[in-house]
Design a protein that fits this description.
The structure is a single chain. It contains 8 helices and 6 strands, in the order E-H-E-H-E-H-E-H-H-E-H-E-H-H. The protein is of the alpha/beta class. It has one domain: Rossmann fold (3-Layer(aba) Sandwich). Strand 5 (137-141), helix 6 (148-161) and strand 6 form a beta-alpha-beta unit. Bound molecules: adenosine-5'-triphosphate (ATP) and magnesium ion.
């Protein structure tokens, strides 16, 4: 696997997976909050290839999603983007990705997997979830539109079902989603301040999300 992420002297690593179609400031703020709260040395954003749960749904070319992620994270020295999923043909499962990533770091590197409230609801349906729970800790973050109490309940349920560490973290509420951004572009509404400036320019340059694409 190709990698350009520095992998030495990393005690705590956080992974944030997503379609990132496009990456927005909700993703960045969440990752930064987790980094600060848990004393994370490095956050790796992993754009999905053809995501299993979005099969059939149109997802922007992975190269565009990857490049926008790189542009969005360039100013944060702790943020990196991995090509691991987009370079692997076929469907990818989170557990395999994390195992692959784990090999690049020292054996005692602690791995935190960041998931928004919506994704937490899906975890139990993921492939080989028990295996996944053994190799990383989960950080479940709040997200507008998803009830906090429900999220806390789900976190407790996960803690009981699996002998693993699941953390609950309240992050500033940013009611931003990639779907909403795509919709705004289609409707010619501004996306300024919802994505970084470079991502906004990238979307304009390649005419992403407009009607005729
Ligand atoms: P889409 O609308 O296309 O599903 P999205 O905004 O949900 O896009 P994803 O790439 O699906 O973005 O999400 C990646 C991860 O980021 C998920 O764990 C998701 O829950 C989390 N996330 C996305 N937006 C926010 C937000 N505003 N606040 C907190 N977490 C978020
Ligand atoms: Mg989503």
């Amino acid at each position: 696997m190709r990698t350009i992420e520095p992998t030495t002297n990393i005690k705590k690593l956080a992974i944030m997976g997503g379609t990132f179609d496009p990456i927005h400031i909700g993703h960045l703020m969440t990752a930064e909050e987790v980094r600060n709260e848990f004393g994370i040395d490095q956050v790796v954003f992993i754009p999905t290839g053809q995501p299993p749960h979005k099969k059939g749904k149109r997802v922007t070319d992975s190269e565009h999603r990857y490049l926008m992620s790189v542009l969005a994270t360039v100013e944060n020295p702790s943020f990196h983007v991995s090509r691991i999923e987009i370079d692997r043909p076929g469907m990818t499962y989170t557990v395999d990705t994390i195992k692959e990533i784990k090999k690049l770091y020292a054996p005692d590197t602690k791995i935190y997997f960041i998931t928004g409230a919506d994704a937490v609801h899906e975890i139990l349906t993921w492939n080989r979830v028990d295996e996944l729970m053994k190799i990383c800790e989960f950080v479940a973050v709040t997200r507008p539109g998803y009830k906090r109490r429900q999220l806390k309940g789900k976190v407790d349920e996960l803690k009981q079902s699996y002998e693993c560490r699941v953390h609950y973290l309240e992050v500033p509420a940013l009611a931003i989603s990639s779907s909403d951004i795509r919709e705004r572009v289609r409707k010619d509404k501004p996306i300024k301040y919802l994505v970084t400036e470079a991502v906004e320019k990238y979307i304009q340059k390649f005419e992403l999300y407009s009607d005729n694409k």
